[in-house]
Request: fold
Amino acid sequence: MGVSEAIEKLETSNRGLNTIIETLDEEFKDLRSDPRLEGLVDDLENLFFAYLKTWIKENSEVVKILKKI
Reply:
């Protein structure tokens, strides 16, 4: 895989991750309706959001490095 291909894949990944973040609340909607998970869903959603943001940040850092090559 070449550098430009790696950059393209990372940028595509970031777009997909941003799409997931935009719909995250909707994805957790069903879980919120389960009384057994009361109080846990918000924490889980926040954790997942932080994980996705970290993943995007790291992908972006790698893209910056690859663009310098």
